Each structure stands twice: as structure tokens, then as C-alpha cells.
UniProtKB/TrEMBL annotation:
Protein name: Retrotransposon gag domain-containing protein
A Pfam entry, by short name: Retrotrans_gag
Region entry Disordered, spans: 1-47
Residues of the Retrotransposon gag domain: 69-160
Length: 215
């Protein structure tokens, strides 16, 4: 029979893997403010989960001992089972716990992109400027080396030939923030044009002609 596990990492058969070194003090209040939003169940990126947890602990003023106590509560399923199998008193600091966690679930790490990968992103036929800009911005978040100069070059290279691409060619932008600011007017004009076309395509939208009165 497998040992029954608890949320704090204890098992019925063995002791807790965390070494208890301090009194809790006011940790209960901090604990309530430091709950992770999404439990880790092995399907997510361990680095992203760990970063989110550490950010919450920093904001709430948590310490190393409290981090060790709360982190197991952010795990579910296979990940929770993993932490219950750690040898008793084998974790002496949160760095120990974080290192073991990342190493165990390293296969789930999201692949980071290189700047050169951005040059493969193209604005599709019929895709709006707003959609292309949003898609490009979302992908840049995954790039390890956020160089604005290359971001701008890759974005312009992927644009279809139109008024906005011509405007960027005439006056270069130095950052994606500047491109987003310059794109606003073009996006608004593009959306107005789409709305106008939709109105003109309505079945009841016909130009009225004056009726000629008989003599």
C-alpha cells in the first residue's frame, strides 16, 4: 500500500522532506495572501510556475521557511506525488526545493525562441494589421534576447505591402512601442473601412433614387 500524502509534503510512512528550522510567527497571515493562482500538475512550464510563486512570495513578504511550507500546496497530481517521495529532511532551503522541482519537470519547459525565429512570422493574406501586431507581440514574449532593433526589423519584414508598411519604410521606428503607437491610426482606419464594407453589403442598403412625378 502506498503511503498517504498531505499537502505540506508529509507522508504516513516517512517524515516531511522539509527541515523545520524556525517558528511560524505571523506566517499564517502571509500564507493566506500567498496562494498560487494555478496549481502545477506537470503539464505546465516549471520555470513559469516557480517564477509566479516567487513573485507572490516577494509581494507578500514571505521568507525562505514560509516558501518551503507553501510551495507543496501549489502542486497537484503527479507533482504532488513527487514531492511526497523526497527523502525525509532532505530539503534545507527553498533553493534546494526549487532546484529539485525544476530538475524533475525540466521536460515540460516551454521552448524559448531566438530573435531569428521572428523573421519567419508573416502577416497572412486577409489578416488585419491589428491581428498581426497582436500575434507578433505575443510571440516576442518568448524570445530570450529581447532586442528591440531586431523586433522592429522582423515586424516590418513580415508586413504585407500597404500604406502602413510604406509609412514605416519612410520613417523608421526604434522600438515596438513606437510601432504600436503609429499603428493605432491605421488600425482605426482599417476597422472603419471594414465596417463600411459590411454596411454596403447589407441587402437593404440601396441608394434611393428620386421618384419622378407624372405630369
Amino acid at each position: 500500500m502506498s503511503p498517504r500524502s498531505h499537502e505540506d509534503g508529509r507522508t504516513e510512512r516517512g517524515g516531511a522532506p522539509l527541515v523545520d528550522r524556525h517558528d511560524e510567527g505571523d506566517n499564517d497571515r502571509k500564507e493566506r495572501r500567498s496562494r498560487a493562482r494555478e496549481p502545477f500538475d506537470k503539464t505546465q512550464d516549471p520555470h513559469a510556475h516557480l517564477q509566479a510563486f516567487e513573485t507572490q512570495m516577494y509581494i507578500s513578504g514571505g521568507n525562505d521557511q514560509l516558501s518551503c511550507k507553501l510551495f507543496p500546496g501549489t502542486l497537484r497530481g503527479v507533482a504532488m506525488h513527487w514531492i511526497t517521495t523526497l527523502p525525509a529532511r532532505s530539503i534545507r532551503s527553498f533553493n534546494d526545493l526549487a532546484g529539485s522541482f525544476v530538475s524533475q519537470f525540466a521536460a515540460n519547459k516551454v521552448k524559448r525562441l531566438e530573435v531569428v525565429d521572428l523573421f519567419d512570422i508573416k502577416q497572412a493574406k486577409g489578416e488585419s494589421l491589428k491581428s498581426y501586431l497582436a500575434r507578433f507581440n505575443n510571440i516576442t514574449v518568448c524570445v530570450d534576447d529581447p532586442d528591440q532593433k531586431f523586433f522592429v526589423k522582423a515586424f516590418q519584414k513580415g508586413l504585407r505591402a500597404d500604406q502602413f508598411s510604406d509609412a514605416l519604410a519612410l520613417r523608421r521606428s526604434s522600438s515596438m512601442e513606437e510601432i504600436r503607437a503609429r499603428a493605432r491610426k491605421h488600425v482605426e482606419a482599417e476597422e472603419d473601412q471594414v465596417e463600411q464594407l459590411e454596411v454596403e453589403c447589407l441587402p437593404n442598403h440601396k441608394e434611393s433614387k428620386p421618384r419622378v412625378q407624372g405630369a
